[in-house]
Design brief:
6 helices; 7 strands
């Protein structure tokens, strides 16, 4: 468990250092036994210590004596309960992904790298107040057959088989969002066909192997 806590702190600080999320915004978790370890509520990442990382069971129980988990722990809980292949989750308020999400729009297949999120496009979850089960349900809908999505007027979320890959996917979503915004400045971008995206999705399964 100590190594997992250390890893969470490492990537939490990288949210700041890579400018993927500022100050206390966003949160990170990893699956552990019958629950998950998650960043605490309201603490700057630069000050985190191993004891600050909170364990939450898959049924949503945690010991308040050990501190409070992120206020958004519910969508982590629901993703782990509904996505067996989810081993780590990164949620960020990254600038470009959030900018696209404020328009309540997803990202179409304007570039083949969209497939890295698991589907032919990147969905945008409907808005709901942060920390609510309603938001969690909206996110699950947007993550259907996907590993990442935008969250309307909020940010983005990505999950993967480990924390390194989850963080990289969150970075990829942010980069794709920047490219999409840039392409819109030139007009409406040309969209790749569903047939082509299916080919790319198939190839993408082996993209990071080796």
């Amino acid at each position: 468990m100590k190594n997992l806590r250390t890893e969470i702190i490492k990537y939490s600080r990288m949210l700041n250092s890579t400018k993927l999320s500022a100050l206390r915004s966003g949160n990170i978790s990893t699956r552990y036994k019958d629950g998950f370890l998650i960043t605490p509520s309201g603490k700057k990442y630069s000050s985190l210590k191993n004891k600050d990382i909170v364990f939450v069971s898959l049924s949503g129980k945690y010991d308040k004596k050990n501190g409070l988990p992120s206020s958004e722990w519910k969508f982590h809980q629901d993703i782990y309960n509904n996505k067996k292949n989810a081993k780590a989750i990164v949620h960020a308020h990254s600038t470009n992904a959030t900018a696209v999400a404020t328009h309540k729009r997803g990202i179409p297949p304007f570039h083949y790298m969209v497939a890295m999120a698991g589907g032919h496009d990147i969905k945008c979850a409907k808005y709901a107040t942060f920390g609510t089960r309603e938001l969690s349900n909206n996110i699950l809908k947007a993550l259907r057959d996907r590993k990442a999505c935008l969250i309307a007027n909020h940010g983005q979320i990505a999950f993967e088989e480990n924390l390194t890959k989850a963080f990289e996917l969150a970075e990829e979503v942010e980069n794709i969002s920047l490219q999409y915004i840039t392409s819109l400045k030139l007009g409406k971008p040309k969209i790749l066909s569903l047939k082509e995206m299916k080919k790319v999705i198939s190839k993408a399964k082996n993209y990071k192997k080796g």
